[in-house]
Each structure stands twice: as C-alpha cells, then as structure tokens.
Design a protein that fits this description.
The complex is a heterodimer of chains A (111) and B (112). Chain A is an all-beta fold and 111 residues long. Chain A is built from no helices and eleven strands. In chain A, strands 2, 4, 5, 6, 9, 10 and 11 form a seven-stranded mixed beta sheet that branches. A four-stranded antiparallel beta sheet of chain A has the order 1-3-8-7, with no helix packed on it. Chain B is globular and about 40 Å long. In chain B, the strands form two sheets. In chain B, strands 2, 4, 5, 6, 9, 10 and 11 form a seven-stranded mixed beta sheet that branches. A four-stranded antiparallel beta sheet of chain B has the order 1-3-8-7, with no helix packed on it. Chain B is 0% helix and 53% strand. In chain B, a hairpin with a 7-residue loop joins β9 (87-94) and β10. Chain B has strands at residues 4-6, 10-13, 19-25, 31-38, 42-49, 56-57, 65-70, 73-78, 87-94, 102-103, 107-111. Chain B is an all-beta fold and 112 residues long. Chain B contains no helices and eleven strands. The chains are: A mainly beta (111), B mainly beta (112). Chain A binds chain B through residues 2, 30, 32, 34, 40-44, 47, 49, 53, 55, 87, 89, 94, 96, 98-104, and chain B through 4, 31, 33, 35, 40-45, 48, 50, 56, 58-59, 90, 96, 98-106.
Chain lengths: 111, 112
C-alpha cells in the first residue's frame, strides 16, 4: 500500500521553510526520500532507519517517528534549486524488500 | 559515479508491437528495478530482481515481463503493447542493504 504524502503541492518564496510529510498504515523499517526535477531522474536525498540511523546529505533534515509510522522532510531557507517533486519510499522490513513510493509532493520555489 | 543507462529516452510504438526497454548499470549492483511513472500516481513498481536470472513481480506486473541474463542488464518487455502502457519507465539499481537507489534517465514510451 502506497504511503500518503502531504501536501500534494506547495509554493514557496525563496528563503521560506517547508515540511513534507509521509505517512504509512504499516509498521516501517525505513523511509527513503528522493527529489526529481522536471525531465530528470529521481535523486537520492536521505534514508532514515528504524532505531535512529540516518544516511544522506548533510544539508537535508528529516525525522522518522516509528510509532506513528511517519516521516517528515524539512526544507529550510529554500532556494530556487529546491524546486521539484519529492517522493518518499518505504520499507516494512529489513532485507531485500522493494520500496513502495508515495505519489509525490510538488514543490515550487519562486523568487 | 554510478551510472544507470536506459536504451532510449523516447520511444513510439504501435499497439500490438513487442517492445524491449533495456537498462544497464555499471557498478556491479545486485538489485535492479523497473518502475512506471504516471502523473499523480508516483512511482509504481513493475518488476524487480535481486540476482541474475531471478525476478519478482512488483505491484503492477500485468502486461509486462523481464529478463536478467547478466548482472548489469535488466530488460523490460511489453509482449503486446497497448495504449494504456503509454508512460515514463524508470530503471533503478542498488547494491542491496540499506542503500540508496540509483535511477536511470527514463524512457518515455508512447503507444499509438
């Protein structure tokens, strides 16, 4: 079952902050975040694992609430380059299980 | 740098044709995946493979098959293309474990 992302779309002015949420109805082992710019491939941002480990870019901030089966991606002091569609992908257990991606959140940053 | 390449960026086929989409990765990754991406639906998994000659169905395998004869190559096959298979197809790979997926640039397939 696909995780639910919110909001579906958001428009920001440069310098503003945004939070993108990802919620699952199943217990989660990990949450992955990707950004896709128009016409390009999705690019990895971060992995958050059960137990608190995180892997990813230093400039990206995210949280993972295992009890609530939710993750949030925090975009602070947004730049024009942050524009794109953000996807979360979830795993319900460790090991070779494929990610289930949400429908995406379209973020537009304007000057 | 990891590189995932796909054989075509754009492809136009006719209904009923057999279509092959090729994906090659150059980093010796164990795992490979095929997704389709449609507006408002996100990335949906068609098939995946965790080893050579191994394949598993994803969420939407109907109308598709795959082949993985070599570790670096994962092919998606549309046996008889239909108009509802018009979509963007993305291939991805990862080395396994808790690691990121690397995506190819995508193939935009139009079936007329």
């Amino acid at each position: 079952q696909q995780p639910v992302q919110s909001p579906q779309a958001v428009i920001l002015r440069e310098g503003e902050d945004a939070v993108i949420n990802c919620s699952s109805s199943k217990a989660l082992y990990s949450v992955h975040w990707y950004r896709q710019k128009h016409g390009e491939a999705p690019v990895f941002l971060m992995i958050l694992l059960k137990g608190g480990e995180q892997k990813g870019h230093d400039k990206i901030s995210a949280s993972f609430n295992e009890k609530k089966q939710q993750s949030s991606l925090y975009l602070t002091a947004s730049q024009l380059s942050y524009s794109g569609t953000y996807f979360c992908g979830t795993e319900s257990r460790s090991g070779n299980t494929p990610l289930v991606f949400g429908k995406g959140t379209r973020l537009s940053v304007i000057a | 740098d990891v590189k995932v390449t796909q054989s075509s960026r754009y492809l136009v086929k006719r209904t009923g044709e057999k279509v092959f989409l090729e994906c090659v990765q150059d980093m010796d990754h164990e795992n490979m995946f095929w997704y389709r991406q449609d507006p408002g639906l996100g990335l949906r998994l068609i098939y995946f493979s965790y080893d050579v000659k191994m394949k598993e169905k994803g969420d939407i395998p109907e109308g598709y098959s795959v082949s993985r004869e070599k570790k670096e190559r994962f092919s998606l096959i549309l046996e008889s293309a239909s108009t509802n298979q018009t979509s963007m197809y993305l291939c991805a790979s990862n080395p396994g474990g808790d690691n990121e997926q690397f995506f190819g640039p995508g193939t935009r397939l139009t079936v007329l």
